[in-house]
Design a protein that fits this description.
Blueprint lengths: L8 H6 L5 E5 L2 H8 L4 E5 L5 H12 L8 E5 L10 H6 L3 H13 L19 H14 L3 E6 L6 H6 L3 E6 L2 H10 L3 E5 L5 E2 L5 H11 L5 E4 L5 H9 L4 E4 L1 H4 L8 H9 L5 E4 L7 E4 L2 H6 L12 H15 L23 H20 L4
Parallel strand pairs: 1-2, 1-9, 2-3, 3-4, 4-5, 5-6, 6-8, 8-9
Antiparallel strand pairs: 7-11, 10-11
Helix pairs in contact: 3-6, 10-15
The structure holds flavin mononucleotide (FMN).
Length: about 375
């Protein structure tokens, strides 16, 4: 094989050595991956505009001019209406009663502090717009949109030299975003942690790659080994976008209880449900997800109402570090996350294993 199979057009576009993107909420993980030759996108949808500006500076101070990205929920996907109180008043009494029953059954305490979710850009258009303005003002190298089409920011972002990545779970969403001119598409499959659609990673990636022309496609959902990376490139992707992989890393600021749960978990310990946010989402199973999966449970509400309903449980579980109640987004590749390694080693192991996989298929790499 004459060419390094890991040197892809995504590497050229982002100016990185390895075609691996870490999605993380942890700045230390982001910096470790960036400084090891990968790329990192920091999830900031739950942060105030001031915090986002501070985090951008913190990263810039540590990466010596290397590029990075920030991920937000874009205002186009946020309901225009309503104060928090107005939104909460629309939650039906029957649903509140069911949530209360769960709390009683599992002895869920009250949260200790203010509900973190209330900062979420997905609840408030003005907040989502202000978050986005920080990214545009700061001219961050890359903006990624986890929820909502980024088409409406492309012109402004491109004028400022910002690249825009759109995350999709359906081929028709990819088609629209490609037509709008996004710089790369993250094709995310059902295996993924967090909000995700119903199409498998093995199906969505080649389907989106087939319509993408020269635009790089990034495969997401269940990618936790070098074999996944090699397979993603064979499916037509130019790189991978990974979340679960970094949660139990040495640098990760996830609670040690969550890290231990992840290290012990397999795909069977994850569940795909809309009971946490109202949108389908893969997380570790917990009493909340198990109770809503029962036939007698009410149908989960739409977003953002279900998220407001679940937020007390989620926050109480975390505030009180109740191992029996806690959950986290986790993908089906979690079974390969078995050791608490430094992020740099996770990246290098993935690269080495991908190269070995190519070698196994094609013979010696030159
Ligand atoms: C703890 C956690 C939180 C996540 N939160 C977001 C988010 O806020 N915005 C977003 O675009 N994606 C979010 N994701 C999804 C990731 O961007 C990514 O698509 C997913 O983790 C890929 O699947 P994998 O975990 O199997 O690698 C989250 C993932 C994890 C693990």
């Amino acid at each position: 094989m004459a060419r390094d199979p890991l040197r892809t057009k995504l590497c050229d576009m982002l100016g990185i050595e390895f075609p691996v993107i870490a999605f993380t909420h942890c700045k230390d993980v982001a910096v470790a991956v960036i400084n090891s030759g990968g790329f990192a996108v920091l999830g900031e949808a739950m942060h105030t505009p001031d915090d986002i500006a501070a985090d951008i500076k913190w990263i810039r101070d540590r990466v010596d001019g290397k590029p990075f990205g920030i991920d937000l929920v874009l205002p186009a996907s946020v309901p225009p209406s309503g104060s928090l109180e107005e939104l909460e008043s629309q939650i039906p009494a029957s649903h509140r009663a069911f949530a209360e029953e769960i709390k009683k059954k599992y002895d869920v305490p009250e949260p200790k502090g203010p509900i973190a979710l209330h900062q979420w850009g997905g609840l408030n258009q003005a907040m989502a717009r202000a978050q986005l303005d920080v990214l545009l003002d700061e001219r961050v190298p890359v903006i990624a949109s986890g929820l909502g089409s980024p088409a409406f920011i492309l012109k402004t972002a491109h004028e400022r030299g910002i690249k825009v990545l759109g995350l999709v779970g359906k081929t028709r969403q990819a088609k629209r975003q490609l037509e709008a001119g996004v710089d790369a598409i993250i094709a995310q499959g059902y295996d993924a942690a967090g909000h995700t659609g119903s199409m498998g990673t093995f199906s969505i990636v080649p389907e989106v790659a087939a319509i993408a022309g020269d635009t790089p496609i990034i495969a997401a959902g269940g990618v936790t080994t070098g074999r996944h990376l090699a397979a993603a490139l064979c499916l037509g992707a130019s790189g991978v976008w990974t979340g679960t992989l970094w949660l139990a890393s040495r640098e990760s600021d996830a609670d040690m209880i969550i890290k231990e749960k992840l290290l012990a978990a397999t795909a069977d310990d994850t569940t795909y449900s809309n009971c946490i946010s109202g949108m389908t989402m893969r997380t570790l199973k917990c009493p909340w997800t198990e109770e809503w999966a029962k036939p007698e449970a009410p149908r989960a509400l739409a977003a953002p109402y279900q998220m407001l309903l679940s937020s007390d449980y989620i926050q109480a579980a975390n505030d009180h570090r109740r191992e029996d109640l806690m959950t986290e987004a986790a993908g089906q590749g979690v079974g390969f996350v078995t050791a608490m390694k430094p992020a740099r080693q996770i990246l290098f192991d993935m690269v080495e294993e991908a190269l070995a996989a190519f070698e196994e298929i094609t013979g010696e790499l030159e």
